[in-house]
């Protein structure tokens, strides 16, 4: 059998960012509106600092305004809620992202639910989660949206496909399962208590791993020809003491069985940031009562 085709998330994300950039330029010319994204980082987690820096850079490259707020590890819940409320009231800010995880003295759900749902470009507010679950227009979480875009581009119509999502977090697994259900897939959500996970995975035409366990999904868990989406970002010890990124799927095994697969790095990660920019553009348009542009590639 021939090896799986590699789904190039990095290249797709670059094209999506370019599309967003074109629409941002048009919005400036036609409506005098520049979309703005505020990113809040609490504490000094090195991985989070890298992501926040990349987000800021790509926001500016798309022609949008970027506002970065860095708060100390010892920030109180009240201070963070005050900042969110200030950003809610700021007309130049169309999107607000509070980087997760937050330090333990802070109640994350309370913070996320304080963000104005119309500025909630992460799609984590309970209103947006509920709107997604009931099939209404919502701001959709970026990672699941990135997965769906790649799947639709690669497979076209998804209706009737058996999809298995491993992982049931509020930020990846659950919203992705909702999106796939919306595409009329037959969806199974697996998790740490699932019995015989390999057998569940072998049923999947579309297999998504969003677990946080390096190389957990083995080649013999995959139905031959299936499409495999690897959301996992795991930093592991590489050669000569260097760290490297691996996914939740054992890529070398999977590539021999799957029909198509996303790599790590260069798969879903870059799509997540591109979708964040797309959501910010959407939020800015809606704030002005303008229709959000169609960004399908
Ligand atoms: N590419 C990107 O842009 C992003 C990547 N990520 C990455 O995706 C991965 C998942 O993230 P996130 O959803 O936030 O993680 P969480 O830790 O919130 O959720 C992990 C899920 O995996 C399940 N799980 C854990 N161990 C097993 C196991 N042995 N077998 C089956 N299921 C298991 C858990 O089950 P249970 O509920 O039963 O505990 C849980 O539902 C991480 O690697 C993260 O770094 C996350 C966000 C964005
Ligand atoms: N409020 C909030 N929203 C998020 O969307 C959010 C978050 N908090 N906390 C952390 C996770 C993780 N996440 C990633 C984004 C981009 C890459 C990414 O670009 N990865 C590159 C590699 C980057 C590298 O080399 O480290 C790739 O996979 O190719 C990865 C992970 C967003 N998250």
SSE inventory with pairings:
Blueprint: E1 5-6, H1 9-31, E2 36-42, H2 46-61, E3 65-71, H3 77-89, E4 95-98, H4 108-112, H5 126-133, H6 142-155, E5 162-166, H7 173-182, E6 186-190, H8 197-202, E7 206-209, E8 227-230, E9 234-237, E10 243-246, H9 251-254, E11 260-261, H10 268-287
Parallel strand pairs: 1-11, 2-3, 2-4, 5-6, 5-7, 7-8, 8-11
Antiparallel strand pairs: 9-10
Helix pairs in contact: 1-10, 2-10, 6-7, 6-10
The structure holds NADPH dihydro-nicotinamide-adenine-dinucleotide phosphate and 5,10-Methenyltetrahydrofolate (GUE).
Question: What does this 3D model show about the protein?
Answer:
It comes from Fodinicurvata halophila. Its EC number is 1.5.1.5, 3.5.4.9. GO terms for molecular function: methenyltetrahydrofolate cyclohydrolase activity; methylenetetrahydrofolate dehydrogenase (NADP+) activity. Residues 141-286 form the Tetrahydrofolate dehydrogenase/cyclohydrolase NAD(P)-binding domain. With 297 residues, this protein is α/β, with parallel strands linked by helices. The chain has 2 domains: 33-116, Rossmann fold, CATH 3.40.50; 141-269, 3-Layer(aba) Sandwich (Rossmann fold), CATH 3.40.50. 40% of the residues lie in helices and 16% in strands. The chain has helices at residues 9-31, 46-61, 77-89, 108-112, 126-133, 142-155, 173-182, 197-202, 251-254, 268-287, and strands at 5-6, 36-42, 65-71, 95-98, 162-166, 186-190, 206-209, 227-230, 234-237, 243-246, 260-261. It has a 6-stranded parallel sheet. Strands 3-2-4 form a 3-stranded parallel sheet, sandwiched between helices. A two-stranded antiparallel sheet has the order 9-10. Helix 7 links the parallel strand 5 (162-166) and strand 6. Helix 1 (9-31) runs parallel beside helix 10, helix 2 packs across helix 10 (268-287) and helix 6 packs parallel to helix 7 (173-182). The chain is globular, with a radius of gyration of 19 Å. The mean pLDDT is 97. It binds NADPH dihydro-nicotinamide-adenine-dinucleotide phosphate and 5,10-Methenyltetrahydrofolate. 5,10-Methenyltetrahydrofolate (GUE) is lined by residues 50-51, 97-100, 122, 142, 233, 245, 264-266, 269-270, 272-273.
């Amino acid at each position: 059998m021939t090896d799986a085709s590699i789904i190039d998330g990095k290249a797709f994300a670059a094209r999506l960012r370019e599309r967003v950039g074109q629409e941002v330029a048009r919005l400036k010319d036609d409506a005098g509106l520049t979309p703005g994204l505020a990113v809040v980082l609490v504490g000094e987690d090195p991985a989070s600092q890298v992501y926040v820096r990349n987000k800021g850079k790509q926001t500016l490259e798309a022609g949008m305004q970027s506002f970065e707020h860095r708060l100390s590890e010892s920030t109180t819940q009240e201070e963070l809620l005050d900042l969110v409320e200030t950003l809610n009231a700021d007309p130049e800010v169309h999107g607000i992202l509070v980087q997760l995880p937050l330090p333990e003295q802070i109640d994350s759900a309370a913070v996320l639910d304080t963000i104005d749902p119309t500025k909630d470009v992460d799609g984590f507010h309970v209103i947006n989660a509920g709107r997604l679950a009931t099939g209404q227009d919502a701001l959709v979480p970026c990672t699941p949206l990135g997965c769906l875009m790649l799947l639709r581009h690669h497979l076209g119509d998804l209706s009737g496909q058996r999809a298995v999502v491993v992982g049931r977090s509020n930020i990846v697994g659950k919203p992705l399962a909702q999106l796939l259900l919306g595409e009329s897939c037959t969806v199974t959500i697996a998790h740490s208590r699932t019995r015989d996970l390999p057998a569940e995975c072998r049923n999947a035409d579309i297999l998504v791993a969003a677990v946080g366990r390096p190389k957990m999904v083995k080649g013999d868990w995959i139905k031959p020809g299936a499409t495999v989406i690897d959301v996992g970002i795991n930093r592991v010890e590489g050669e000569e003491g260097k760290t490297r990124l691996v996914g939740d799927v054992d890529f070398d095994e999977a590539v021999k069985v799957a029909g198509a697969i996303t790599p790590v790095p260069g798969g879903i990660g870059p799509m997540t940031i591109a979708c964040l920019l797309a959501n910010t553009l959407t939020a800015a348009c809606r704030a002005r009562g303008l229709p959000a542009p169609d960004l399908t590639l």
